[in-house]
Amino acid sequence: MRYLLLCIIGFAIQIVFILVENKKKYLPAVILKGSAALIFIIIGVLSMQLASNHSFARLVVIGLLLGGIGDVLLNLRFVFEKSGQKIFLLGIAAFLSGHIMYLAALIMLSNNLLVSLICGVIAAVLLLRWIFSKIGEVQKAFKMFGYVYIGAIVLMTAVAIGNFISQPGSTSALLYVIGAVFFTASDVIMIFNTFGGTQKFSMRAANLSLYYLGQLLIAISLQFI
Q1: What CA–CA distance (Å, rounded) separates 22 from 218?
Q2: Which distant-in-sequence residues (6+ apart) come within 8 Å of 191 by Cβ?
Q3: Are the C-beta atoms of 83 and 39 separated by less than 8 Å?
Q4: Closest CA to 73 of 18, 30, 23
Q5: What is the DSSP secondary-structure string of 105-153?
Q6: What is the dihedral of CA 74, 78, 82, 88, to 10 degrees?
């Protein structure tokens, strides 16, 4: 029950953050986003206490923490506009580091790693070709980060899917794979909304909602591992 209550509180804060950010109240938005991130980190830490595989859980909690740091940085770019590009890239780097932690954790449980990685590479190449064919030209630094970042999250999702296929009855694997898919969908929406021309509130709301649900599911999955 306490996990459900924390999830409801966290998602409620995330919704308020989305609305406040849309009103361009960027400093309160940063505080709200950091508070929402703190909730999924707390859920991850609490869930880790119930995990039977503490090495796996520890890496995932580090990933959640890095995601929380990325959350704050991505919104700080609106507060400090002159350094916005650098802060944005730092935020993406924090998220990338978090994905690497998630991937390292998943690899520990993988029974079909090579197949999962091959499928992930193919999926990442196809997805990136499609994304960049739709959004046109972007700055080289952002494009390089896009390749590495999307590549990492798609690989993470592919290994999560592979783990679920090999453990179809695992609640942890199911929650994790749904969270990973939500996370991937969120990032694709973010890229289109950031670099696709006109930014839309509906896409921003979808991006942030899917992302947060993904983090919550990954955090909760630890108690079933």
Answers
A1: 27
A2: 131, 135, 146, 150
A3: no
A4: 30
A5: HHHHH-SSHHHHHHHHHHHHHHHHHHHHHHH----HHHHHHHHHHHHHH
A6: 10
pLDDT given at position 135: 75
For residue 10, pLDDT over 90 is answered with yes
Asked if 134 contacts 196 with a C-beta cutoff of 8 angstroms, the reply is: yes
Residue-range domain boundaries for the chain: 2-224
Where on the phi/psi map is residue 10: left (φ > 0), alpha (ψ -120 to 50), or beta?
alpha
Most confident of 22-31, 72-81, 85-94: 22-31
pLDDT band at 105 (very low <50, low <70, confident <90, very high): very high
Which letter does DSSP use for residue 82 in this model? G
Tokens of 79: 């507060």
The residue ranking higher by pLDDT, 197 or 177, is 177
